[in-house]
Amino acid sequence: MSDKPIYVTQPFLPPLEEFIPYLEKIWENKILTNGGPFHQELERTLCEYLGVKHIALFTNATIALITALQALRITGEVITTPFSFVATSHSLLWNGIKPVFVDVDPNTLNIDPAKIEAAITPQTTAIMPVHCYGHPCDIDEIQKIADTYNLKVVYDAAHAFGVHCHCGSVLNHGDLSILSFHATKVFNTFEGGAIICPDEKTKLRIDQLKNFGHAGEISVVAPGINGKMSELNAAFGLVQLKHIDDILEKRKAIDARYRENLKAVSGIHCLDGSGEKVANFAYFPILVKSEFPIERDQLNEALKERGIFPRRYFYPLISEFSMYRSLPSSSPGNLPCATQATKQVLCLPIYPDLDLKTVDEICAIISSQ
Ligand code: T4K
Q1: What distance in angstroms lies between residue 200's CA and the mean position of ligand 1's atoms?
Q2: Do the domain assignments include residue 224?
Q3: Mean confidence (pLDDT) of the chain
Q4: Which DSSP symbol is given to 176?
Q5: Of 10, 89, 109, 133, which alpha carbon lies 20 to 30 A from 82's?
Q6: Can you tell me the distance from the alpha carbon of 41 to that of 282, in angstroms, rounded to the nearest whole number?
Q7: Is residue 52 pLDDT above 90, yes or no?
Q8: Which atom of ligand 1 lies closest to the CA of 9?
Q9: In this predicted structure, what is the pLDDT of residue 354?
Q10: 137 C-alpha to center of ligand 1: Å?
């Protein structure tokens, strides 16, 4: 085993020489932000790569989520999942919206569409599902419910960069989708995020909202925020994108090796995808079931003692944090599958530079318990 700690993830960094010409360009033209040339080029290039119509770049996904809700003027109650990173529902609170938690499907750990209807009230205006680990939600069922009850759908697609479902990019579903380009994500711009939107009018509103609400030099049309991605981050994204195929290939090989090594280990369940046509292998979540000799937290500790640092994404559930705990929908009785999953889940290290020998060693530690 390497002397260095093995973390759940490690950002991909291209060779530094590739980034230098971009820095020289920035130094030369002195445009650092506010929709400069690299920002525009990254928007164009990402639309093409992802197979989407419009994209608005942001400083991070959290500001993008908050802005997406503003762009669609969402109010009242929004149905969402407790099995996510806390940014998902924090974006609702930042907009004065009440989150209503609905349980997850025990197989995908995505929101269970069969449980959504019962949570709809006259105040419900939208559904905010998460493509957890980059595995697509049941988009067709969710859309059916949204159409029946006239609800918006805002996907937290922070994990779903490049993922395709049965009909192309999963990012084309719902009213808006939000990506994260954080250092820990499949595609990173150090910090960054984006909103995918279907039409030019919505893109214009989002662009105004992320630029203080400005609609020209002396006109402000909304109480917007500063959510703009800088030229430095956008330039880095352009370099990263040149390596994305290699990044995905390496992730795929690691995913396959874990599955092969762990398939015979009783009590360890490797979470499957949810039928995606193109996967991104963003995470490698396992469920440590009761048949396994030790509990999830003990396995986590055993790995940490050997210099391996998996993460319990997502533990605790969002609904367990103090600002959500008192909501009626937060009761564990309402969320049995999420409550079980949060006790069993462990995300093992996966990132392009992780060698397969280390994957074997991690699996050997797990099987020797
Ligand atoms: N929606 C969902 C579903 C999300 O998962 C997230 C973010 C968001 C929305 C919001 O997206 P952003 O606003 O961040 O764009 C991390 C990330 O900070 C967060 O972006 C991510 N989800 C979440 C799942 O994970 P932490 O607190 O676990 O990160 P941290 O710093 O402990 O990093 C994990 C490991 O990665 C470290 O042990 C070492 C390694 N690492 C990390 C960083 C930051 C590096 O090697 N280099 C680095 O620069 O939250």
Answers
A1: 31
A2: yes
A3: 97
A4: E
A5: 10
A6: 25
A7: yes
A8: 36
A9: 98
A10: 21
pLDDT confidence of residue 239? 98
CB burial readout 261-282, b (16+ within 10 A) else e: bbeebebbbbbebbebeebbbb
Pairing of the two strands 54-58 and 77-80: unpaired
pLDDT reported for residue 3: 80
If one residue of 182, 236, 283, 318 were mutated to test the ligand 1 pocket, choosing by the most ligand atoms within 8 A of its CB, it would be 182
| Closest by Cα among 173, 172, 122, 129 to 149 | 122
Q: What is the pLDDT of residue 1?
A: 63
- Nearest C-alpha to atom 48 of ligand 1 is from which residue? 183
CA of 247 to the centre of ligand 1 (A): 18
Query: Residues lining ligand 1, judged by CB closer than 6 Å?
Result: 7-11, 60-62, 84-85, 87-88, 130, 156, 158-159, 180, 182-184, 193, 309, 311, 313
> Does pLDDT of 46 surpass 90?
yes
Confidence at residue 299, expressed as pLDDT on a 0 to 100 scale: 98
Entry pTM: 0.98
- The number of distinct structural domains making up the chain is 2
Tokens found for residue 336? 């049995």
Residue 2 predicted with pLDDT over 80? no
Tokens of 363: 């699996």
Distance, in Å, from the CA atom of 167 to the CA atom of 33, rounded to the nearest integer, reads 35
CATH code for the domain of 328: 3.90.1150.10
User: Which DSSP symbol is given to 132?
Assistant: G
Percent of the chain's residues with pLDDT above 90: 99
Tell me, yes or no, whether 176 and 228 share the same domain: yes
Q: Are residues 187 and 330 in the same domain?
A: no
3-class SS of residue 44: helix
- Alpha-carbon distance of 82 to 339, in angstroms, equals 9
Separation of CA 292 and ligand 1 centre (Å):
28
Q: How far is the CA of 213 from the centre of ligand 1 (A)?
A: 29
Domain match, 55 and 190 both = yes
CA of 85 from ligand 1 middle (Å) equals 9
